[in-house]
Amino acid sequence: MNTTHRPNGTILIILAGIFWGSMGIFVRGLTTLAGFTSFQIVSLRLTVAGIIFTIILLIKDPKGFKISLKDIPLFLGLGFGSVLFFTACYFTAIRLMTLSLAAILLYTSPIWVMLMSLLFFREKMTGKKLLALGLSFLGCVLVSGLGSDKSSVTPIAILIGLGAGLGYGLYSILGTIALRKYSTYTVTTYTFVTASVGSLFLCSLPDLWHKITVCPRKPYLCFYIILTGLVTAVIPFLLYTLGLEQVEASRAAILATIEPMVATLIGVVVFHEYMTLMSLIGILCIVGTIILLNYHNSQNKD
Asked: Is the separation of the CB atoms in 123 and 248 below 8 Å?
């Protein structure tokens, strides 16, 4: 696998972040349409993605279903340890603390990725990466609103929030390892099939099915569920995993912090939410991170 940083890899990672940033539209839409809980939306999203990725792999590379038995723990780590774990931690954190603080803790993920990349991949730590890391995290903090709610937060809640960041970052690490041996399509398929199976134990399946059957707009609901899986999981994870073939894990994780910026802009444009000066400064910090990481890139200078 070639991890040399190339412009198209950067574009793929940024596009993935943009698609992830649109998640709020679909979460609010499914909540309004059928009253799904957060975990039910997560399960629907992962299950649809698992089915679509399976179909893609069947068409693109049927032989890609064959994996080594010794690599099963790797894919269990991707499905359970990364995608499902970070999602469960994140939505639990949202219930235990403010949305802004949960988002800040989630976006400690580039820090975890950078530390794990130093340990497992011997990636070189540079001043440029450290500056980009600090700038991106500051941007996420500002965009998230500094966790302005002063209500008390327990240490357990903080640990759960940090767990979301760790699980989120783990995808970059385990995905990079898996891509050394398997195609993007194999990696994403096994990751999401595994995660979707695990999610069924968290979603109150009988209640989920009841909400679908009693919805008066079932055809539209089914279309919206499929669209949610496609736009918020299949497309961005496919783009991000393809990007990991070309971009270092630590750099990719920092670039993906464009997600909260996009989510904020969608909130302003689509839901007419108010943008604060802090959010605007945060957006500029995240844009500055992307510019910094790609400055003099053609000369491969850090």
From this structure: yes
Report helix, strand or coil for 300: coil
The CA-based diameter of the chain, rounded to the nearest angstrom, is 59
In the chain, beta strands by DSSP E = none
1/260: higher pLDDT: 260
Phi-psi region of 122 (alpha: psi -120 to 50; beta: other; left: phi over 0): left
User: Cβ distance 31 to 228 under 8 Å?
Assistant: no
The pTM of the full predicted model, rounded to 2 decimals, is 0.82
d(CA 159, CA 93): 9
What string of DSSP letters covers 25-45?
HHHHHHHHHH---HHHHHHHH
pLDDT at 142: 80
pLDDT of residue 228 exceeding 90:
yes
Q: Per-domain residue ranges for the chain?
A: 7-299
Which of 144, 137, 111 minimizes the C-alpha distance to 249?
111
**Torsion 197-203-205-208 (CA) sign:** negative
What residues have CB less than 8 Å from 83, skipping those under 6 apart? 46, 167, 171, 191, 192, 195
Shortest CA distance to 196 belongs to which of 166, 229, 174? 229
**pLDDT > 80? residue 295:** no
C-alpha–C-alpha distance, residues 194 and 198, integer Å? 6
- How far apart CA 292 and CA 302 sit, in angstroms, is 9
* Long-range contacts, 112-118 (Cβ 8 Å, 24+): 112/165, 112/166, 112/168, 112/169, 112/170, 113/169, 113/172, 113/173, 113/249, 113/250, 113/252, 113/253, 114/250, 114/253, 116/169, 116/170, 116/173, 116/249, 117/172, 117/173, 117/248, 117/249, 117/250
State the Cα–Cα distance between residues 242 and 100, nearest whole angstrom. 30
Which SS3 state, helix, strand or coil, does residue 99 take?
Answer: helix
